[in-house]
Amino acid sequence: MGAVTTRHSRHTGATQPPKTREWAAKPRLGLAGTAGGRTNVTPLRATVGPGFTINLMKNGRRVVRLAPGMYRITVSDRSSFHNFKLEKSRGGAFERTVTSVPFTGTRTITVRLTADRWEYYCVPHEGTMEGHFTVGTGG
Question: The whole model's pTM is what?
Answer without folding.
Answer: 0.70
